[in-house]
Amino acid sequence: MSKQAFPRRFSDTEANASLKHLRISPQKLNLVAGVIRGKSVWSALSELSFNKKRISNDVKKLLMSAIANAENNHGLDVDRLFVREVLVGKSITMKRFQARAKGRAGRIQKPFSRINIVVAEREEIA
Predict the structure, then answer these.
(1) Which among 28, 63, 79, 94 is placed 20 to 30 Å from 40, CA to CA?
(2) Topology of the domain comprising 14-121
(3) Which of 35, 33, 34, 13 has the alpha carbon at shortest distance from 81?
(4) Confidence bin at 123 (pLDDT 50/70/90)
């Protein structure tokens, strides 16, 4: 009387890694994610290494995690991997207040993001 196994969402040639609460707005994170979409993993890693945005280090760590998942968990060839999709979404928002004139308060919103990277193996061209 146990639960049925949840079917795998990705195909056998894909692997993913995700991060839920990343302290940056989704709009800023999507700028960095757009740089690596569709590229091979090695060119994506080099793009993230030399990117000047602060969040590119976290995205680089997540991409390396997706590569490790593909190699260790699914037995994919690392040299043939490319970034199939990078999904960026909105997570929680911390709400803070700043004191303003005449006893009023100004609202400060500190957004968080989530990101999901899917890497896939290219088919051999013969």
Answers:
(1) 28
(2) Ribosomal Protein L22; Chain A (3.90.470)
(3) 13
(4) confident
